[in-house]
Amino acid sequence: MPAVDGGAGARGLIVARAGLAAVLAGSVVAAYAAGRLPFPVQPVLALVAATYGLSALYLVLARRAPGSRRLVEVQIYGDVVLETALIYLTGGPHSVFPLLYLVSILTASIVVAPAQSFRVATTAVLLHGLLLWAQFYRWIPPIVGEAGPRNLGMEGSLAILLISGNVCASFIVAYLASHLAGRLRQVHGEARRSEASLAALQVLHEDIVQSVASGLLTFDRQGRVTSVNRTAETLCLRAAADLRGTTWDALLAGAPPFATAWATVERASARRARFEADLLRPDGTAIPIGMSVSFLRRGRGVICSFQDLTEIRRMEQRVRHADRLAALGRMAAGLAHEIRNPIGAIRGSVEVLRESLEPRDDDRRLMDIVLRESDRLDAIIHEFLQFSRPPRLVRVPTDLGALADEILLMLEHQQGAPRVRIARPDREATIKAQVDPSQMRQALWNLCLNAVQAMPDGGELRVGVRAPAPAGGPPVAEVVVEDTGIGIGEAALPHVFEPFYTTKTRGTGLGLSIVHRIVEDHGGEIRVESQPGAGSRFTLLLPIGEV
Ligand SMILES: Nc1ncnc2c1ncn2[C@@H]1O[C@H](COP(=O)(O)OP(=O)(O)O)[C@@H](O)[C@H]1O
Ligand SMILES: [Mg+2]
To answer: Would you identify the CATH topology of the domain 215-308?
Structure first.
């Protein structure tokens, strides 16, 4: 991890070194001019010149390989060597310049890497030690002339003191510098990371606001729109740019004026108020909306989140309608029940009268009409009650084939259409299902009766019972009632199961409704297929259950 851009680091070092060398040269010359220096001035100036020469070389190298970290390192270690030379030239053990090592150690930690400062410190300590050692043993001559005899003991302890002082100072500075530079980097990294996560958070926030299913509008304190999300644009049928600046009162009808709404929110316990209003749209339409209004922070305005209530209103209306119908149905059932008794009484009385009065011709015919029509009325009411007050299911294992045969036998004896042939296909095995036999009998009877009525000129009635191989779901029994009668037109097909839908002059339109209800109560399904002029097929699918 490079601490700073290598190119900038290399050039910065060159400039700083040049400045430092200039200051050094200046002060040495000034001190020389002012009085006597403890060391000769020329070698120091030569070293300064050499420093400039090296710097020029570094500059060329920095141009050639911009951003090189290696060059920065070479410069720092080169500086340590230059500093050692300066210490030698300015008096060896008497020089004040070991201080300059600290500058290089600091630079290494800041410009290259915190750990580098220890390496530079080690190099500096070794070179310094080597210099003093060499001077002590006279491997290299002292630059400052010696006056008087050498005091070996004093020189040795001075060298040891200086070396250990330099060791302490260098390593303490290296430690502090690496620690501080490390912290600095950490803080930089944290700042960058939190900047990145802040940006990500902002994107997420914007995403959420834009994609919520509710419309969001914010208003300033004057009640003008300040921001809009996508749903709000869709519901208002206007683009955000167009909506901004529109006033609360121009947008909403049936809501309290903005000032009143503001006061209501202020008074509300949770500082949130609900309103219902009509959202006015540019095409002249309005949709009902339910909105929740609360304050933005620091009193900058209000935020209003709202939903389209059109579908809910429609549903409410449907439920109200269905409720009314259900109540009406209950009333009709009660009424029908009440009508049965007087009809029974009328029929009974007329029957008695017919016996006792022995009316002739017209009178007898009239009495017959009364009897026949009261029978019909009673049958209608009976059917209606069966439909509206279905008896509870009593399921028992029932042989569906036998049940169908029973119905067909009844039909053969009862029917006034002898030209209808009756067929019983698919009757090899006994198929049992958990059904209510009396209700199932009713359903089959209604289907067969319709089939016979659809074949006034004769035809064939087929009633089949099968147990098809289960296709994934639980096993079912299939009862098919098929005729070759007049069929049902495509337009009528969706209506045949509706109560009171009939195409017959004397029909009630309740037969198939009852079948439908019974099959549904059994958890089954009824399907119808028909070709006008060719015939119809009703298929009952009944779950077999545990038999
Ligand atoms: N097998 C069938 N063939 C042709 N039309 C039928 C058949 N079954 C029912 N329909 C049509 O469905 C209508 C409703 O039947 P249903 O509910 O039994 O009432 P209804 O028999 O009293 O008319 C009938 O009027 C008739 O138009
Ligand atoms: Mg019928």
So the answer is: Beta-Lactamase (3.30.450)
| CA-closest residue to ligand 1 atom 24 | 502
Q: Give 389's strand partners.
A: none
List 294's β-bridge partners, or say none: 272, 303
- 452 CA from centroid of ligand 2 (Å): 10
What pLDDT, in 10s, does the model give residues 158-206? 778 888 888 888 888 888 888 887 888 889 889 999 999 889 998 988 8
- Cα separation of 465 and 402, whole Å? 10
**pLDDT higher at 112 or 488:** 488
How far apart are the C-alpha atoms of 460 and 485, rounded to whole Å? 8
Helix axes 41-64, 69-89, angle to 10 degrees: 180
Q: What is the CA radius of gyration of the chain?
A: 54
Is 485 exposed, middle or buried (CB count within 10 Å of its CB: 0-12, 13-18, 19+)?
A: buried
Domain ranges in the chain are 6-191, 215-308, 321-388, 396-543
Average pLDDT of span 356-377:
90
The whole-angstrom separation of Cα 13 and Cα 4 is 12
CB 347, CB 374: distance < 8 Å: yes
Residues 6+ apart with CB under 8 A from 413: none
In ligand 1, which atom is closest to the CA atom of 483?
Answer: 1
> How do residues 300-335 score in pLDDT, each as one tens digit?
899 999 999 999 999 898 888 878 877 877 888 888
Question: Which CATH topology does 396-543 take?
Answer: Heat Shock Protein 90 (3.30.565)
Report how far ligand 2's centroid is from the alpha carbon of 528 (Å).
14
111 DSSP 8-state letter = I
- The pLDDT-based confidence of 149 (bands split at 50, 70, 90) is low
Q: What does the mean pLDDT of the chain come to?
A: 87
Strand residue runs (E) in 197-271: 215-219, 225-228, 252-253
Pocket test for ligand 1, best of 502, 505, 526 (most atoms within 8 A of CB): 502
Q: Token match 């209604």: residue? A: 446
Considering 45-49, 336-340, 516-520, the range whose residues carry the highest mean pLDDT is 516-520
Residues within a 6 A CB radius of ligand 1: 446, 450-451, 454, 483, 485-488, 496, 501-504, 507-513, 536
Measured in Å, residue 434 CA sits from the centre of ligand 2 at 25
> Exposed, middle or buried by CB within 10 Å (0-12, 13-18, 19+), for 187?
exposed
The residue with tokens 């690496």 is 178
Distance from residue 514's CA to the centre of ligand 2 (Å): 9
Contact between 524 and 540 under an 8 Å Cβ cutoff? The reply is yes
If you average pLDDT over residues 341-364, what whole number do you get? 90
